[in-house]
Amino acid sequence: MGTQPSGVRERILGSASSLFYTEGVRAVSADKIIAAAGTTKVTFYRYFRSKDDLVVAYLQEQSAGMQERAAALDPDPCTGLRQLAEVMGTEACTPGFRGCPFINAAAEYPNPEHPVRMVITGHRAWLHSLVAGRLRLLGVQEADSLADQLLMLRDGAMVHGYVEDGTAVGPALAAAGEALVLPRITAGKPKPAAQA
After folding, report:
1. Ordered DSSP codes for the chain
2. Spatial distance between the Cα atoms of 188 and 67, rounded to a whole number of angstroms
3. 50-62, pLDDT tens digit by residue?
4. pLDDT per position as a tens digit, 146-164
């Protein structure tokens, strides 16, 4: 019995994902992906009309995986945010870590109207919403602005984990995040009544 069609698509996507992440999207040709997947050009183009369609599928798969992992975060907003920082720090420590796939792809696709950039924008909007939503649950005012700041820290941590020693990323990201978040939680709480 031959490989199921969906299995062929997943094999192509799996080969492309590994190559895109380790070598860069633009550096990897369709021919290289076809060879790595052990398929033919006809089969490749049956599932993906162009390499850009494959890049879109790759990033959508990355986003879906991150959203699935985020669903398992502790429902307590503070604990969940800390876990999110720890997960990112752990990723930065893994062998072969080459930074955030979305930041990497964004650098290769500068046109904001390109389908690849639209996937990146959608993923980042989801991530921003996740962080801002948890900040709101903590009673933080201006949660959107603080979420922007935390995502800037996260982006910097991902780059740092790639170009420097990744083992320090998790603790540093958590400490920097707490330094931004904790004062705003305290500021949002009512002051205790004066003792008589």
Report:
1. -PPPHHHHHHHHHHHHHHHHHHH-TTTS-HHHHHHHHT--HHHHHHH-SSHHHHHHHHHHHHHHHHHHHHTTS-SSHHHHHHHHHHHHHHHHHSTT--S-HHHHHHHH---TTSHHHHHHHHHHHHHHHHHHHHHHHTT-TTHHHHHHHHHHHHHHHHHHHHHS-GGGHHHHHHHHHHHHHHHHHHHHSPPPPPP-
2. 29
3. 999 999 999 999 9
4. 999 999 999 998 888 888 8
pLDDT value at position 1?
39
8 Å CB contact between 52 and 63: no
Cβ-based burial of 165 (10 A; exposed 0-12, middle 13-18, buried ≥19): exposed
CA distance 169 to 158: 8
pLDDT of residue 13: 97
Q: Give the whole-angstrom CA distance, residue 188 versus residue 160.
A: 32
User: Using CA atoms, how far apart are residues 60 and 11, in angstroms rounded to an integer?
Assistant: 16
Token duo for residue 34: 């076809």
Please identify every stretch of the chain with a pLDDT value under 70, giving residue numbers as ranges: 1-6, 186-196
